[in-house]
Specification:
By secondary structure, the chain is α+β, with helices and mostly antiparallel strands. It contains two helices and 13 strands.
């Protein structure tokens, strides 16, 4: 009886070990970062846009409460149009303001601008394109949203910027635009989009 029990336990242990090995292999094969799937905390924020057909989805993945990776998706009619990783925030707790720039003959668009102390992201809904804007003494310079490659731009004598790639050759919109709201930690500590209160009537 004891021998039979040991045999059953050995077979059961072998099956459990085999299942763990197979599961690990599946994670390695089908996941870009299998450890992150187990250890990361994922937060998702949806920002509705005034054109009613589009929305921004911001995803923040935190691994072991230290590394913060951010991703942005522009969706139209529920379908992803542009997806890209964003540069790392200087401070993960910094609020991110979201503003809307109407389309114009001079600047193109419409655009959505996301601002935080560590940088600025501009989303062109028409091209569509997502770029990071770096403000410098000689004028704004465009880089990739992740901040690791420069997009072509020519700065004219009037400090105007002609973009040669990424925003369909349009100049950058001016002004602060219309504030839509802020992405920040709410009172319960959850990463959320807090819309701007509608004006009183």
């Amino acid at each position: 009886m004891i021998r039979r029990t040991r045999k059953v336990l050995a077979i059961t242990s072998a099956l459990i070990l085999l299942s763990l090995v197979m599961g690990g292999l599946a994670l390695v094969q089908f996941a870009d970062d299998p450890m992150a799937m187990v250890l990361e905390k994922r937060e998702r924020v949806v920002v509705p846009l005034p054109d009613s057909a589009s929305r921004l989805v911001l995803i923040r993945r935190t691994i072991l409460s230290e590394s913060h990776r951010r991703h942005i998706v522009l969706e139209r009619a529920g379908q992803p149009i542009v997806e890209t990783e964003l540069f790392e925030a200087a401070d993960a707790n910094d609020p991110l303001t979201v503003s809307w720039h109407e389309a114009s003959v001079e600047f193109g668009g419409p655009y959505v601008r996301l601002d935080e102390p560590g940088g600025e992201i501009l989303v062109d809904l028409v091209t569509p394109a997502v770029v990071r804007v770096l403000r410098t003494a000689v004028g704004p310079i465009l880089t990739s949203p992740k901040g690791d490659a420069r997009i072509g731009a020519v700065i004219g004598p009037d400090d105007g910027v002609t973009v040669t790639d990424g925003l369909a050759g349009q100049r950058l919109p001016t002004g602060t635009g219309r504030l839509l709201g802020t992405v920040m930690m709410d009172e319960s500590g959850v990463w959320s989009f807090i819309p701007t209160a509608p004006p009183e009537r």
